[in-house]
Specification:
The chain has 10 helices and no strands. The relative contact order is 0.11. It folds into 2 domains: 8-55, Homeodomain-like (Arc Repressor Mutant, subunit A); 58-183, Tetracycline Repressor, domain 2, CATH 1.10.357. The protein is mainly alpha-helical. Helix 5 packs across helix 6 and helix 9 (138-161) crosses helix 10. It is elongated, with a radius of gyration of 19 Å.
Length: 192
C-alpha cells in the first residue's frame, strides 16, 4: 500500500458521513469508517483524532477566523453592523456541500450536541473580544456576541435545510432583519 493515499481525508469524511447517516453516529466505529474508505486506522489518525473530529475538523479555527473578520470590517460600522458583516464573511467559508448532513448527524447525538455547544461558546468569547477590540464597551460586546451567534446558528439551520434557495450570508441578513423587526415596539407594547 502506498504511503500517501490521494484524497484520503475526503474519502474518510465521505465514508464517515455515509455511515453516520445510515446507522447513527453512536453505532459507527473508526474501523468501519476506514474499511468503507479503503484506508487504514493509521491513515485515519493522520487526519482526525477520533470520529467526532470528522464532523468538527477545523472548527477550532472558527473563533480566530471570525475575530479577524470583525477586525477587517469597515471601521465606520457600528458594532452590530460590523458583527453581521463578519458573520456573512465567515458564512461563506463554512457553507459546504456536507453542512446539511453534518447538521442531521449532530442533531441525532447528545454527545455531538454538547461538542457543538462547547465550540460555539469559544466562538462567542472570541466574537466578544473582537468587538471590544473594535471599541465596543465590554457590556455591549458581551450583549452582542451571543446575539450574533444566535443569528448565525438560526441562519445556518435555515440555510442547511435549503442550501439552493439562498446563500448562508443571505440567510444571516434575513435572520438579523427578522430579529430587528421583532424588536420594534408595537402599538400595544408595554414598557418595563
Amino acid at each position: 500500500m502506498p504511503r500517501w493515499e490521494p484524497e484520503a481525508r475526503d474519502r474518510l469524511r465521505d465514508a464517515a458521513l455515509e455511515l453516520f447517516l445510515a446507522h447513527g453516529y453512536d453505532n459507527v466505529t473508526v474501523a468501519q469508517i476506514t474499511e468503507r474508505a479503503g484506508l487504514t486506522r493509521r491513515t485515519f489518525s493522520r487526519y482526525f483524532t477520533d470520529k467526532r473530529d470528522v464532523l468538527f475538523a477545523e472548527s477550532e479555527q472558527l473563533p480566530a477566523v471570525l475575530a479577524a473578520a470583525v477586525g477587517r470590517a469597515d471601521p465606520d460600522l457600528a458594532p452590530f453592523a460590523a458583527m453581521l458583516t463578519a458573520l456573512g464573511e465567515v458564512g461563506d467559508l463554512v457553507a459546504d456541500a456536507h453542512a446539511a448532513e453534518r447538521r442531521a448527524i449532530v442533531q441525532g447525538s447528545p454527545e455531538l450536541q454538547e461538542r457543538g455547544r462547547t465550540k460555539f461558546a469559544a466562538v462567542t468569547s472570541a466574537l466578544a473580544a473582537a468587538l471590544e477590540q473594535r471599541g465596543a464597551s465590554p457590556a455591549t460586546a458581551t450583549l452582542l456576541a451571543p446575539v450574533g451567534i444566535a443569528i448565525f446558528r438560526s441562519a445556518f439551520d435555515r440555510w442547511s435545510g435549503q442550501p439552493e434557495a439562498a446563500t448562508l450570508p443571505d440567510r444571516i441578513r434575513e435572520t438579523a432583519a427578522e430579529l430587528a423587526a421583532n424588536l420594534q415596539p408595537g402599538p400595544a407594547a408595554s414598557h418595563f
